[in-house]
Write a structure and sequence with these properties.
By secondary structure, the protein is an alpha/beta fold. The chain has seven helices and nine strands. Strands 5-4-3-6-7-8-9 form a seven-stranded mixed beta sheet. It has a two-stranded antiparallel ribbon with strand order 1-2. It starts with 5 loop residues before the first helix and ends in a 10-residue tail after the last helix. The structure holds S-adenosyl-L-homocysteine. The site of S-adenosyl-L-homocysteine has 26 residues, from strand 2, helix 4 and strand 4.
Length: 231
C-alpha cells in the first residue's frame, strides 16, 4: 500500500498519538494500521488539509468519512485476529475497508451509492487492497453469498441491527454498529454464541442513516428531510 510522503506520515503519527492512543485505543495492530493507511487519499481535494483532523469529513453524496478515533474504536471493538471474513455496510470512500483489509483475511463491503462504490473500488485497487470486494446495493440485506462473517461492521446508523446481518454473523462472531435516530446513537457490539446474542454499549456516536429495507425508510425521513430521521 502506498504510504508515501514523510509529511503525511508525520500527520498520521500525530493523529494516532493524540486522537487515538491517548483516548485509550491499545490494540497494537489497530494503531499500526491507522499509522500506515493514507487517509488523505480517501478524502476529496476540497478537504485535503483536514484529512488528519479530529473530525468526520464530507465525501460527496451527502455522506461522511468517520472521525479517525471512531474508525479505530470500531475496528478495535471487532477484536480481529487476522483470519476473519469481514462484512462492512456503508463503503463510503473506502477508508474503513482499507483499514480492515490489513487486519483480516477478506472484506466484503456494500454501498448504496454507486458513485461512491466505484470511486472507492478504484482507489482500493490502486492502494493494493486486493482482498476487498466492493458491492453496490442495500447492505441491510447483507451478502449471503459470502456468509457467515466473523466480523460485521455497519458504518451508518440503524434503527436496530438488521436481522439478515445477525443471521449472517458466524458463531463466535462480533458485529459493531451505531443504533438510534438522527444525532443520538449508541455504538454497540453484538456477540453471537450459538443461537444467543449479547449486546454491549460502547459509546455515544453520530452517524449518517442506514437507508434500506431493514434500515431507515422514506417515511422515517419525515417532512424536514434526512437530517431529522426518527420513528
Ligand atoms: N465507512 C465509510 C463511511 C461511510 S458513511 C468510510 O470509511 O468512508 C456511511 C455510508 O453508508 C454512506 O456512504 C451511505 O451511502 C452508506 N449507506 C447507507 N445506507 C446503506 C445501505 N442500506 N447499504 C449500503 N450502504 C449504505
Amino acid at each position: 500500500m502506498e504510504t508515501s510522503s514523510p509529511q503525511y506520515q508525520r500527520l498520521r503519527e500525530q493523529m494516532v498519538e493524540r486522537q487515538i492512543a491517548r483516548r485509550g485505543i491499545a490494540d497494537p495492530r489497530v494503531l499500526e494500521v491507522m499509522r500506515s493507511v493514507p487517509r488523505h487519499r480517501f478524502v476529496p481535494q476540497s478537504v485535503l488539509p483536514s484529512a488528519y483532523a479530529d473530525c468526520a469529513l464530507p465525501i460527496g453524496e451527502g455522506q461522511t468519512i468517520s472521525q479517525p478515533y471512531i474508525v479505530a474504536l470500531m475496528t478495535e471493538a471487532l477484536e480481529l485476529a487476522g483470519h476473519e471474513r469481514a462484512l462492512e455496510i456503508g463503503t463510503g470512500c473506502g477508508y474503513q475497508a482499507a483499514i480492515l483489509s490489513r487486519l483480516v483475511e477478506r472484506v466484503h463491503t456494500i454501498e448504496r451509492h454507486a458513485v461512491l462504490a466505484e470511486r472507492a473500488e478504484k482507489l482500493l485497487i490502486e492502494l493494493g487492497c486486493h482482498n476487498v470486494h466492493v458491492h453496490v446495493g442495500d447492505g441491510t440485506a447483507g451478502w449471503p453469498e459470502a456468509a457467515p462473517f466473523e466480523a460485521i461492521i455497519i458504518t451508518a446508523a440503524a434503527p436496530e441491527v438488521p436481522q439478515p446481518l445477525l443471521d449472517q454473523l458466524a458463531d463466535g462472531g462480533r458485529l459493531v454498529a451505531p443504533v438510534g435516530p438522527a444525532g443520538f446513537q449508541n455504538l454497540i457490539r453484538v456477540r453471537k454464541k450459538g443461537k444467543r446474542t449479547t449486546t454491549q454499549h460502547l459509546a455515544p456516536v453520530a452517524f449518517v442513516p442506514l437507508i434500506g429495507e431493514h434500515g431507515w425508510s422514506e417515511e422515517d425521513k419525515g417532512e424536514r428531510g434526512w437530517r431529522f430521521w426518527r420513528r
